[in-house]
Fold:
Amino acid sequence: MTIKKTGAVLVLAGCFLGISARAVENQAVKFDPAPYLGTRWYGAYLMGNKVGYGSFRLAQTDYHGRRAYTSESSIFYRLNLGGRTHEMSIREEKIYLPGQGLVAFTSAQNSLLGHSSFTGLKKNSLFEVTTPTGREEIPAPEEKLADALADLVLVHSQAPPGTIVETTQFETTLLTTVRIKHTVDSIEKRFISGVPTTIYRVASEFPQLGIKTLSLIDQHLHILEAKVGGVITIREEGEKESKDMGYASDLLLMTSITPDRPVPDPRHARSLTMRLSGIDDTGLLLSSPRQRFEKLGPQTYYLKISVQEDPNVPALRLPVLDADLKPYLKPTAYLQSTHSSVRQLAQEIAGNEKNAGRVTERLVDWVYQNLEKSFLAAIPNALDVLKKRSGDCKAHSVLFVALARSLGLPARQVSGLVEIEDGKFYYHQWAEVHTGRWIPVDPVFGQVRADATHIKLSQGDLVEQLRLLNIIGAISIKVLDYQTDEEAGDHLPTGTSH
Structure:
């Protein structure tokens, strides 16, 4: 089953489990959904604080006169962002035909940006997907109902420890098929409220997403606990208990990082040297000419970031036609760069300018000047942000990238950490454009070259951003040295090493 989180999709999905691939194939024909019918309610916790609740329902239904099964999952979030309460909800419905698997789906989101949804219908070997901006065709995922119920199937079939099975499942919010590897870690006996209980520990690995989950499920198919990336916990609760939210801690402060000392005037930081601890995912170590990692010890790294300007690199002319950069020019379900309203606005901003560097400056300035800065509990897309003219760093990033791509300027989303004027580092999103080489820009701060407190840990869409879950609550920062930009009028002395 799937559970959603603000800003990303947490896929707690499964696969059909057996002792071997051949065993799975033989058992799939005999799969009986009856034990899994019904509704379950859950509470969602972030770093111990309750941030939402959800439900999962499986029911037998009719689909064009044929017996089918519908799975419905929903999640509601109430988040404290910057001292204000924000709410959002995500609902997913999948329809399965016995023997055929997934034949239709709907994924819908409600937030301050409004309502948006994706729907999909299987036609032969393709899925016809309808988004707010049109239709597209994607390969039909070979997902069976047993795949969506994999963790529960594992317990029901009493699979022994050491069982390993790999499969794929379609994630409707990401509009992509993900591979999953499930392992039965252990089976143990406990007394819960005086009742002897058998508990299965199921570890699930999502290589494409860079995350892992660990679920504790009892013999009655109740999910006692499911941990995602060590920071998010899902627990099965009664409906009334699950909806009891109470006070919510400020999400921004809760996930912020306080270094041993701040960098004065971070927006003018020209170089920064630091020691990062608590990183156990090497996929987050994105070295480049701008930032260089060096391993110091277990989960500990030296990092130096320098704001680089190279006048010897000539700016490209738009549109950029380099085949290697095509992936960064494509529209997506969230970056609707070919939509008429996005194209028209981008042309108005760029005018007759074709120099990639100068167009970048105009786009950054327009987004900075015209989008109100406001916290947002949502998975933003460029069109909704353009209509709302308001949003957080994610909203600024998706609109900027869509505008850039519409002009033939390669652009991509970037996520990581940034220091704010209060001296803390916060999780943040900005962008990169290729004007002759990749340069970081931050429309939230109006920076054409992002300052040196921007620590890049992820590049790409939601699929890549999920990796950040592996370090939330675990990372620490020690500032070793810094240098500010004297040309900006900042004459603070260079920091001394500790």
Summary: The chain has two domains: 3-242, 256-488. Residues 3-242 form one domain. The chain has a mean pLDDT of 88.
